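Long-time lurker, first post. I've been practising inverse folding by hand and with some scripts of my own, and I keep getting stuck on stretches where the structure tokens seem ambiguous. Below is the full token string for one chain I'm working on. Before anyone asks, I'm not after the true native sequence, just a reasonable design that respects the backbone. If someone could post their per-position residues I'd love to compare against what I wrote down in my notebook.
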């Protein structure tokens, strides 16, 4: 078999819930100052999952959408890996729940399993799948990567940073989005965000520490990515070598704080191409690196210095994360799909920097080279129309939904009570959890006739 080349992302889609709560309404409901969430966090809306959906159902929906929209034969898939931190079973992988879709087409030979570390699992799943395609074990079939979560928080300041979504990516050779060779990883043992209480969906969060860890990892990853780029490609690297940058986005304001650090790292490495930017950084040249992550004067100067480049390079990737909130493992790749939605016609031959971060911590800086047309992805996933078609719920309804999720999270012998009419057509939903904890799913259709002729049998895992 001929060895694969230009391995990367061939196609992609995203599933997000059909309901959302507006951040401006949450500000009023929570009694906080106007703009605290919409300006302070940089968020517009937040996707909301009811008791009808869990991580298995969302991954089922995302996978089925990808297969149908891009006409992928089920026997053409040889690997599936799921990156998620949303756990409904401490032993059984989410990936196994997807196998009914493939077993129904007599495909049982599918490698891969789940990867977990906070928001980084999706990137681990992608890198593992790329390695499989590039390995001697590759059998010529595609890999599918699922990256996503349901992000929920207990009452308090962090609740507005929730969200939900799952991105599905088809990985293989001759891809329009080629993952380039240079990459750099930074890992530490810290407790900035973690989930030690197994009976609860809610994490323990040290927000200030998490922000500092994010920026520290970014500095490390970008610097070493630049060094490896120069070593591997034998050419100087600075931010000017890329045309777009996509970030893991817990909330958009953190992304705004982060992008300018690329320029500052170039300044410290002596790689800045602009004398004006170099002059703007000169007053901070002697500042300790850790202080630059907290000093308000520096942070304000950084935003001002990078404002225009941020608008050009980063802003086009903000659409889905602003509208749906944080999907944890899916966040970075939701940003990529936002960029495709907004810039598909002009992306060919461009380089996209990708920064992935997961608390705990694990982070990687890598890049994509757009080697082909991606307009077909934009056309098939139809993001803007789907976002506009969602249903708004009130903060009161949102609070009730989370209370319901709390009470049913680890419950056995349970049937969701909410009407499935709120779901969009084609969405998989949780039908029942039996007295042994086995979960059943069914796909929602708009008419009983469609239910009768399509996947009427219950999927049981």
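-- Answer (accepted) --
I ran through it position by position. Result:
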């Amino acid at each position: 078999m001929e060895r694969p080349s230009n391995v990367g992302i061939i196609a992609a889609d995203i599933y997000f819930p059909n309901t959302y709560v507006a951040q401006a309404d949450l500000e009023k409901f929570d009694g906080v100052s106007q703009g605290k969430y919409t300006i302070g966090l940089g968020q517009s809306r937040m996707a909301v999952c009811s008791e009808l959906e869990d991580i298995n159902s969302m991954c089922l929906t995302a996978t089925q959408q990808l297969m149908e929209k891009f006409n992928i034969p089920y026997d053409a898939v040889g690997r599936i890996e799921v990156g998620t931190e949303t756990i409904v079973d401490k032993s059984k992988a989410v990936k196994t729940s997807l196998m009914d879709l493939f077993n129904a087409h007599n495909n049982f030979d599918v490698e891969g399993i789940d990867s977990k570390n906070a928001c980084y699992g999706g990137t681990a799943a992608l890198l593992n799948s790329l390695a499989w395609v590039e390995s001697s074990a590759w059998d010529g079939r595609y890999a599918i990567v699922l990256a996503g979560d349901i992000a929920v928080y207990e009452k308090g300041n962090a609740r507005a940073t929730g969200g939900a979504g799952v991105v599905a990516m088809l990985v293989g050779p001759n891809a329009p989005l080629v993952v380039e060779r240079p990459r750099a990883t930074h890992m530490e043992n810290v407790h900035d965000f973690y989930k030690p209480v197994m009976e609860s969906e809610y994490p323990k969060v040290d927000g200030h520490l998490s922000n500092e860890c994010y920026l520290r990892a970014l500095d490390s990853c970008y610097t070493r990515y630049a060094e490896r780029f120069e070593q591997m490609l034998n050419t100087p690297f600075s931010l000017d070598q890329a045309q777009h940058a996509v970030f893991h986005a817990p909330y958009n304001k953190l992304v705004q704080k982060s992008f300018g650090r690329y320029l500052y790292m170039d300044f410290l490495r002596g790689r800045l191409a602009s004398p004006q930017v170099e002059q703007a950084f000169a007053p901070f040249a002697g500042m300790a690196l850790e202080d630059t992550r907290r000093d308000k004067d520096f942070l304000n100067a950084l935003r001002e210095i990078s404002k225009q480049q941020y608008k050009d390079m980063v802003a086009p990737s903000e659409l889905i994360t602003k509208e749906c909130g944080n999907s944890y493992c899916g966040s970075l790749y939701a940003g990529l799909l936002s960029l495709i939605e907004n810039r598909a016609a002009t992306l060919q031959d461009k380089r996209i920097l990708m920064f992935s971060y997961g608390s705990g911590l694990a982070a990687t800086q890598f890049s994509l080279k757009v080697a082909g047309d991606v307009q077909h992805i934009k056309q098939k996933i139809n993001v803007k129309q789907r976002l506009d078609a969602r249903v708004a719920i009130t903060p009161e309804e949102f609070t009730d939904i989370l209370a319901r999720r709390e009470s049913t999270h680890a419950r056995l012998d349970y049937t969701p009570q909410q009407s499935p009419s709120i779901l969009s057509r084609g969405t998989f939903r949780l039908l029942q959890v039996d007295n042994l904890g086995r979960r059943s799913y069914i796909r929602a259709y708009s008419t009983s006739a469609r239910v009768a002729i399509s996947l009427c049998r219950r999927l049981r895992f």
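A couple of notes from the structure itself: The longest strand covers residues 142-151. The two ends are 36 Å apart (CA to CA). Happy to go over any region you disagree with.
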